[in-house]
Amino acid sequence: MTRRVKKVPLLTTTCGLGSIRWTFPNRASDTSPSAWRARVTICVADELCAPALIEHEYLVPPHLQGAEILKFQIQAARDEVRYLTLAIEDFVEHEDKVWVRMRGRGSDPRSGKSVVMDVMDICRFKDGKLVEHWGVPDRFALLHQVGALPPRPA
Predict the structure, then answer these.
(1) Using CA of residue 48, residue 52, residue 55, residue 59, what is the dihedral sign?
(2) Which domains does the chain have, with CATH numbers?
């Protein structure tokens, strides 16, 4: 069964270990794959990830395994975008997979400019653990906004 939720009510939470905030549907007692994915912070990486997590996102060092992959990705996101917040715009849950489209906001740590980008994630779960992940942050949008690429065509 596929469940699609659009423009869900949102709640913002902050992990006590850093400056990243994840905004997610207010279903705190939910243990479904979509609720797990939404609560991703360094504080739950060990609990969330399977030891043999398969990661498909570009630029993840191949020697990392399990929760270390997610911890690396969260820290890299913090380094790329200061005061990063991610708000879920859409998600679809089907069988063992969750597709999420998020809007990221923050500031470029080098220039201080405000930035906005879309992020797409596909997560596969087994026995309540994240076992496979595909992530696609729109890095071209970031590069345009900080002036590293030519401006958008008019």
Answers:
(1) positive
(2) 2-145 (3.10.450.50)
CA distance readout (Å), 36 to 27, 53, 58 = 10, 15, 22
Q: What angle do CA 37, 39, 71 make, to 5 degrees?
A: 80
pLDDT digits (tens, 9 = 90+) for 8-51: 333 333 333 233 334 444 444 444 444 443 344 566 788 888 99
**Within 10 A of 141 (CB to CB), how many other CB atoms are there?**
16
State the Cα–Cα distance between residues 82 and 105, nearest whole angstrom.
9
Contacts for 64 with CB less than 8 Å, ≥ 6 apart: 55, 72
Total Cβ atoms within 10 A of residue 88: 22
Residue with tokens 């913002």: 12
Residues with Cβ within 8 Å of 56's Cβ and at least 6 positions away in sequence, in order, are: 132, 133, 134, 135
Residues 81 and 19 sit within 8 Å (Cβ to Cβ): no
Both tokens of 111, joined, read: 């220039």
